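queue> pop job 88
queue> type: inverse folding (structure -> sequence)
queue> payload:
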């Protein structure tokens, strides 16, 4: 049975369980959201499994643990036993918090990652600082987000040959730019946007392209000039996105704000 059919079956069985056992609406919403996050876990784990041949991805990680918790939730749903469903959903919730996925809240996601990374040093910390900064920003912890971003950028020169270097340059500046927008410092935010666009790229940025949230925020503030410079810089690493970048640039020149769609996701 493919994953889509499994997801529909799980949702159907959940509805049956709610009818018989009176599970409240908040709980049922959490389970539905958890099932959607399980799809993300499955796709990510499949990709990471292919990467394990290079030795870059460990056999047992947070995605593996989350996938097991997703299986437990699906098995619980198949029993139509509300108590089992709630217990499995609660266990999965903790795993999704670690991965930064809903239905866990931004604050839960930040707390989970801070707990996981407590005491980390060197390369291990370097790999987690971007996520710490982004989660702190999403949780409204701007001071923490700023501290994590600055620490990331300070560490980056020590790992200039590391696969994560380009991500560090991009997201360190990206988060600082978003904080500057929140503080009304638009000129500084534009400088951070250009610094983010000056990244040498990475496997992730080269494939999926740059995050456009900061660019959109600056366009909404009338800062089209710096956004056009940013889009030009992104051509240096996002080769597959040249056509998209050209379309966005044309729309910005015409006074519009593009629908950046999936490029607004981290």
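queue> result:
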């Amino acid at each position: 049975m493919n994953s889509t059919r499994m997801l529909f079956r799980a949702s159907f069985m959940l509805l049956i369980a709610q009818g018989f056992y009176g599970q409240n609406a908040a709980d049922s919403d959490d389970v539905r959201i958890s099932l959607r996050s399980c799809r993300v876990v499955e796709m990510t784990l499949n990709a990471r499994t292919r990467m394990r041949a290079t030795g870059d991805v460990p056999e047992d990680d947070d995605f593996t643990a989350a996938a097991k918790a997703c299986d437990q939730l699906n098995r619980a749903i198949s029993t139509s036993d509300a108590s089992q469903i709630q217990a499995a959903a609660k266990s999965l919730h903790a795993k999704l918090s670690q991965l930064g996925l809903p239905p866990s809240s931004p604050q839960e996601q930040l707390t989970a990652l801070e707990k996981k990374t407590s005491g980390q040093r060197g390369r291990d910390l370097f790999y987690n600082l971007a996520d710490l900064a982004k989660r702190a920003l999403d949780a409204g912890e701007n001071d923490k987000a700023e501290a994590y971003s600055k620490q990331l950028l300070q560490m980056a020169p020590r790992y200039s040959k590391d696969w994560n270097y380009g991500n560090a340059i991009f997201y360190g500046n990206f988060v600082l730019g978003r904080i500057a927008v929140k503080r009304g410092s638009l000129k500084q935010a534009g400088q951070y946007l250009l610094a983010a666009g000056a990244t040498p790229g990475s496997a992730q940025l080269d494939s999926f392209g740059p995050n456009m949230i900061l660019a959109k925020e600056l366009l909404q503030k009338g800062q089209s000039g710096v956004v056009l410079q940013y889009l030009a810089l992104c051509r240096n690493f996002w080769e597959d996105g040249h056509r998209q970048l050209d379309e966005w640039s044309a729309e910005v020149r015409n006074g519009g704000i593009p629908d950046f769609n999936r490029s607004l996701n981290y």
